[in-house]
Structure formats: C-alpha cells, structure tokens
Amino acid sequence: MRVINFNAGPAGLPQPALERAREELLDFQGTGMSIMEHSHRGKEYEAVHNEAISLLTELLGIPSTHQVLFLQGGASQQFAQVPMNFLTPETSADYLMTGVWSEKARDEAKYYGQSRIAATTINADKRYTRVPKQEEMQLDPAAAYVHMTSNNTIYGTQWHTFPEVGSVPLIADMSSDLLWKPIDVSKFAMIYAGAQKNVGPSGIVLVIIDKGFMAKGSTNIPKIFRYSTYAENNSLYNTPPTFSIYLCRNVLAWIKSVGGLPQLERWNREKGELLYGMIDRHADFFRAPVEKGSRSYMNGVFRLPTEALDETFVAEAKKAGMVGLKGYRSVGGIRVSMYNAVTVDNVKTLVAFMEQFVKKHG
Amino acid sequence: MRVINFNAGPAGLPQPALERAREELLDFQGTGMSIMEHSHRGKEYEAVHNEAISLLTELLGIPSTHQVLFLQGGASQQFAQVPMNFLTPETSADYLMTGVWSEKARDEAKYYGQSRIAATTINADKRYTRVPKQEEMQLDPAAAYVHMTSNNTIYGTQWHTFPEVGSVPLIADMSSDLLWKPIDVSKFAMIYAGAQKNVGPSGIVLVIIDKGFMAKGSTNIPKIFRYSTYAENNSLYNTPPTFSIYLCRNVLAWIKSVGGLPQLERWNREKGELLYGMIDRHADFFRAPVEKGSRSYMNGVFRLPTEALDETFVAEAKKAGMVGLKGYRSVGGIRVSMYNAVTVDNVKTLVAFMEQFVKKHG
Ligand SMILES: Cc1ncc(COP(=O)(O)O)c(C=O)c1O
Ligand SMILES: Cc1ncc(COP(=O)(O)O)c(C=O)c1O
Ligand SMILES: [Mg+2]
Ligand SMILES: [Mg+2]
Ligand SMILES: [Mg+2]
Ligand SMILES: [Mg+2]
C-alpha cells in the first residue's frame, strides 16, 4: 500500500513512472540488462537521454536559443558553479533574497567575485514571508546577472510575476517549482533545478541555458565545471547519472501523457486552493505566515496554536496514511509539499483530515 | 533473459542487488514509498546511507584515520576538486601518467597550481602499455600530493604494487578497480572512485580520505566543493543521490554475502587467468599490447589480426549473448571488462567462444 507523500524533496514520484522502472529494471526493452547497466555511449541509453531532453523542451516550449543540460552535485553545486562561470573579481552579481536557498546561493558567490543584495524580504525575525515587489528592487544595470529563487521551499513563498531586470541576464533556481505550470523560458538566461521535487530522484540537476549567455562563461576554470563542456557534448562529456536521467524521462513522459503543463497547472491551482481555502476558513488555528500574494502552490506552510499540536498533527496524519508534513528543521510547524506527483485527491484527503483536526483540537 | 555484460562502465551489476531493488521499488520495507521518495533526513534513508558506509568500511578495512564520503559529478569532477582543495599557485603536485584518465586528471590541475609529471609510460604511439617501475619515478619530496590511476580502464593496465612516495600524500583514482581485492587503505591520503564499474550505478563517487590530510584543504573555495563539508555532515550537507547510494548498499551487501574481498580476489584472479591464458595460447591471433606485469584484472585488451575481424568478433559474441566487448573509441580492438559482477562462468563462456573463434578465423 502506497502512502500519501507530502515530502519536500526528495519527494513522491508519479506511480506510473516508478512502475515502468520496476517493470524493466532487470531487462530494459529486451536488451537483457538494466538501463543502468547500459553504456552511456550506446544507442539504447542515448535514446533515453535524448528523449528526456526533447520531452522537457516540448513541455516547457524551450526556444532554440536555449539548451538543456544535465549536471550533478545538486542545486547547491549550482550556487557555486554559476559564479564560477559568470562572475569575476571585477564584476558584481545581483541577488534577490527570498529565503535560505537565496542566502546559500549568494554565500558561494564571494569566492569568485562581488555580489549585491538587490532586494530582500527578510524580516525582524530573520524569516521571509513574501517575495519582493518590483519597485523594491535596486537593480544594478551593470550586474553580471541577477539571481533569484522562484519558489522558496522552506518558507513557502513563490514568485507569481517574475522580476523585470532589463538587459541583465536573469538566473533562477527553480528547484522546487520547475514544471508546475507553463513559463516563458526566454525571460531567463539560465534556469536550474535539482530534480528531486517535481522531476525525478535526487542526483540530477536540470539546466536550461541561453547559448549566447553560456558562451560568455569563463574558460579559465576546469573543463568539468564549464556549462559549455556539457553543451558541446550533449551532457555526455563524462558519464552522466544514467538511471536518474531515465527516471526523469519516465516522469516527463507521464506529464505529457496526462496533458502537459496546462493540466498540471490546473491541478496545482486546485490543490493550492483546497489547502489555502481550509487554512483561511480556520485562520486562527492554521496560522499561515505567508502574505497571500506570495503563497506557494508547491509548499504550503502553517503552524498550529502550539508546538505540541504541530506534533500531534504530524502523528495523527501519519496514522491516516499521510507523511512528510513536518516543517523544515529551522522553521518548525507544518509544511505541505504538493508537487506534481501529489494528486488533487491526496490534498482533499489532507483537507478533510484538517477539518476533523480543528473540530477535535480547535 | 539477462545477457553476459562486459561493459566498461556503466557496467553490469550483481543480479541479487538489482532484484532487491526491484522487489521494493514502490514500497521500501513496508513504508509505502520507494527509498528514492524518502527524505534524505529521515531515519529510513539514513539507515541505508550509514549501512553503505559501514559495509565499505568493513569490506576494505578502512582505518579510523580515514572517512568515507559520497560525492557527485563523476570521477571527472574529482580531477578538478582534488587540486581545488589541495593545490595552490605556490605548490606543485606530482602526477604519475599511465593513460587517458591520468592525463585528464592532470589537465584540470593547471587551474589551481603547478603540476609535474613524476613518471610517464607513454610510448612513441602515444599509448600506454605498462605502469612505471619505482626507479623510473622522479618524485618531488615537496609535492602537495602524488596522483595516480590504479587501473587504466582504456589501456588495460593496472598497478600491482603501489608506488612508494615517502611522506607525500598519495591520491589514487580507483574508479575501475576499487573493491577488486583487499588493499591497504592506510597507504593513501585519498582514494576516489566513480561507482559505475565495481560498486553501483553512475552518478555517485566514493571518496575515502585521511582526516588529517583533509583538514589541510583550502577553505577559500565554495563550501560545496570542500571535502570537509561532506565529512562534517556525513555526506548529508545537501541532498545526496539517495537511490544511487541505496544501490551501492545493495552491491556492498552482496559482496559481503559472497565472502567479501578475499573471495572477489580469488574470482577476479581466476577470471584474469582464464582470459590471459587464452590470449597467450594464441598470442599471434589475440594480440595483447600490455606488458605481462602490468596486465589489468579488470579490463583485458587485445586486437585481432584485422579490424574486420575485431568487428566480426564483437558481432558473433553478441549473437552468443555477450555484449560490451568493443574497445574504447580512441583505441579500438577488443576490451573485456571483468568487474566484480562478471562471474567466472561468464569468462569461461567467453573463453570457449574465443577458442571457437580462433578455430574458425585463425
Ligand atoms: C529551492 C532550492 N534550492 C536549492 C536546494 C538545494 O538542493 P540540493 O540539496 O539538491 O543541493 C533546495 C533543496 O531543497 C531547494 O529547495
Ligand atoms: C579510471 C577512470 N577514471 C575516471 C573516469 C571518468 O569517470 P566519470 O565518467 O565518472 O567522470 C573513468 C571513466 O571510465 C575511469 O575509468
Ligand atoms: Mg533538500
Ligand atoms: Mg527557502
Ligand atoms: Mg565512462
Ligand atoms: Mg586509461
């Protein structure tokens, strides 16, 4: 029996994607071996690799100005790899600070060049409960790039309008909301995302990069760290994480089969409305810190009147077959991660549980 | 039906390790989700993670002076990460050149500091057919480290006696022979290995590092690239490739179950003797370039009298249920990779096929 999985990442994956993997785990398409036992230079694996790229391209409508790359090291490695490629001691990058992950991203920039905080929504409690408004941003027109976190997994905030940054290249960490709905990829010089929320298992990072921007990257860094190395070799310069890419392929094929990003957006909005509707009907009990305009459709956070009730909530939900609801270590409370593999029905089950929970403990 | 898989990497995995993964792919130990859907901070995953570390520690007899780390980015990222941590513009590292991978490793060092060739066995054809002898090495006693490739996957050579480097830290890329037999880990300041030959799928790198040596690493580099970051966080600083580590755990458990490294060494030596015995009995036909004392027990390379025969060999072997025998792109010929998952019987089947092949085409 599968449980309802609200984990923040690694997160639940669509069951059909996993079933497909199980089915052919020891014998991929009659080849007599697992896809993970195939050479990354063989035609069987290359077909999977290229299908993952073309599905992502199709689903997101990635323009031909941009290229899809597969990297490793988690989104955290991108925090360092972005400035390594695109920042020098003589240049400065702008960072839009909206949470823990923006902070960690900026921390890694200092080893390569200068950085500025172009906007921050940190409050007196050192927490973040919203994303900045356009007029709050103090953008440097000469910046090497602007870095943003599109969805703040820990604080449960999300950008619903992307910032206007003029001609400065915009780079977004979309680890926790890539593929939640259609977006205009052409606005971004680079998008990166650890796969383990919406796309696949941990151990694989998706990069979508503007080729012109990429060409400006440093060549005075090791080959393995240059985006151009991945681009020139179709992400096969060295051995990619083949099985992880295969699993992403399965998830992307599932997304296409259910109707693509327009359908996922409908489901994700419905899930968000269900959860936030319940929160707002019992706002004294489910205390949601995030400003309404910045609420995340991927991670809904709230706290109950006491920490003891938070714990009871998590424990009773678990008994009811729902796991992964504990808030992030440093934040506490409850976090409901509702990535693409979480169904509308799953959220209905949770919301019904919440209704009962208020009746019992409210 | 599973084929006999002589792939050089990603390579075949022990069937019991894969069957175990298939069995619990959608429901890990009754938790109602796949291990890849578990949080990397949850007790279920952490038990797997720690078991992988303790199995590796036990199998290799890793002393308490050393620590096991899990990294990403392939062995190729280690080529850069080693000098990033341990080389400065003021220091120099020694490289022992025994093949393509040694060359690539040294190429990445120049971005961080100086490097010297302390020995090379490159020949007039720009190939390598042996590893250097101790007396051929011109070691710099002030070197930051000595880097070596313990097994040369492409050229089919292997070190059978590790070099004596005095008090200089010795770093070995053991990507293609870690776990082939017991070794004395204490001789090495650091060992690294991409998992995809002897240990697991691609997308995970095992590092075994001396803690005192690690402590000397630069702190003027991004946190995500410091070995000490992985060490301080038990390789859970950011999200590790959880499913890949789980698969390594399954392979390590299988190694233990069959008798550990002494048993693997017996099998690997028997496999090597079978293959090289056949080669030597038909030395005019199976032309093996490697000097006998440097022959690899992991990758056996030879060429047939003509390239057309090489192709026929690969094609007929495939019909007989054996794949992965084509030599590396730049080298050609035949390569028989006989990692731990390849059984003695598999090699007997190949050798019988070779016998028939000489009769028919010799
Ligand atoms: C928005 C965001 N960025 C970056 C990270 C770090 O990702 P990783 O653990 O893959 O390095 C996370 C992890 O949860 C995240 O949510
Ligand atoms: C000895 C050795 N080192 C390094 C590498 C590169 O490994 P990766 O592709 O994981 O970067 C290989 C790949 O086959 C290898 O055999
Ligand atoms: Mg995480
Ligand atoms: Mg955050
Ligand atoms: Mg390889
Ligand atoms: Mg080699």
UniProtKB/TrEMBL annotation, chains A, B:
<dbReference type="InterPro" id="IPR022278">
    <property type="entry name" value="Pser_aminoTfrase"/>
</dbReference>
<protein>
    <recommendedName>
        <fullName>Phosphoserine aminotransferase</fullName>
        <ecNumber>2.6.1.52</ecNumber>
    </recommendedName>
</protein>
<comment type="subunit">
    <text>Homodimer.</text>
</comment>
<feature type="binding site">
    <location>
        <begin position="238"/>
        <end position="239"/>
    </location>
    <ligand>
        <name>pyridoxal 5'-phosphate</name>
    </ligand>
</feature>
<dbReference type="InterPro" id="IPR015422">
    <property type="entry name" value="PyrdxlP-dep_Trfase_small"/>
</dbReference>
<comment type="pathway">
    <text>Amino-acid biosynthesis; L-serine biosynthesis; L-serine from 3-phospho-D-glycerate: step 2/3.</text>
</comment>
<keyword id="KW-0663">Pyridoxal phosphate</keyword>
<comment type="pathway">
    <text>Cofactor biosynthesis; pyridoxine 5'-phosphate biosynthesis; pyridoxine 5'-phosphate from D-erythrose 4-phosphate: step 3/5.</text>
</comment>
<dbReference type="InterPro" id="IPR015421">
    <property type="entry name" value="PyrdxlP-dep_Trfase_major"/>
</dbReference>
<comment type="similarity">
    <text>Belongs to the class-V pyridoxal-phosphate-dependent aminotransferase family. SerC subfamily.</text>
</comment>
<keyword id="KW-0718">Serine biosynthesis</keyword>
<feature type="modified residue" description="N6-(pyridoxal phosphate)lysine">
    <location>
        <position position="197"/>
    </location>
</feature>
<keyword id="KW-0963">Cytoplasm</keyword>
<dbReference type="GO" id="GO:0005737">
    <property type="term" value="C:cytoplasm"/>
</dbReference>
<feature type="binding site">
    <location>
        <position position="41"/>
    </location>
    <ligand>
        <name>L-glutamate</name>
    </ligand>
</feature>
<dbReference type="InterPro" id="IPR015424">
    <property type="entry name" value="PyrdxlP-dep_Trfase"/>
</dbReference>
<keyword id="KW-0664">Pyridoxine biosynthesis</keyword>
<feature type="binding site">
    <location>
        <begin position="75"/>
        <end position="76"/>
    </location>
    <ligand>
        <name>pyridoxal 5'-phosphate</name>
    </ligand>
</feature>
<feature type="binding site">
    <location>
        <position position="196"/>
    </location>
    <ligand>
        <name>pyridoxal 5'-phosphate</name>
    </ligand>
</feature>
<feature type="binding site">
    <location>
        <position position="173"/>
    </location>
    <ligand>
        <name>pyridoxal 5'-phosphate</name>
    </ligand>
</feature>
<dbReference type="InterPro" id="IPR000192">
    <property type="entry name" value="Aminotrans_V_dom"/>
</dbReference>
<dbReference type="GO" id="GO:0030170">
    <property type="term" value="F:pyridoxal phosphate binding"/>
</dbReference>
<keyword id="KW-0808">Transferase</keyword>
<keyword id="KW-0028">Amino-acid biosynthesis</keyword>
<keyword id="KW-0032">Aminotransferase</keyword>
<feature type="domain" description="Aminotransferase class V">
    <location>
        <begin position="4"/>
        <end position="350"/>
    </location>
</feature>
<dbReference type="GO" id="GO:0004648">
    <property type="term" value="F:O-phospho-L-serine:2-oxoglutarate aminotransferase activity"/>
</dbReference>
<dbReference type="Pfam" id="PF00266">
    <property type="entry name" value="Aminotran_5"/>
</dbReference>
<dbReference type="GO" id="GO:0008615">
    <property type="term" value="P:pyridoxine biosynthetic process"/>
</dbReference>
<dbReference type="GO" id="GO:0006564">
    <property type="term" value="P:L-serine biosynthetic process"/>
</dbReference>
<comment type="function">
    <text>Catalyzes the reversible conversion of 3-phosphohydroxypyruvate to phosphoserine and of 3-hydroxy-2-oxo-4-phosphonooxybutanoate to phosphohydroxythreonine.</text>
</comment>
<feature type="binding site">
    <location>
        <position position="153"/>
    </location>
    <ligand>
        <name>pyridoxal 5'-phosphate</name>
    </ligand>
</feature>
<feature type="binding site">
    <location>
        <position position="101"/>
    </location>
    <ligand>
        <name>pyridoxal 5'-phosphate</name>
    </ligand>
</feature>
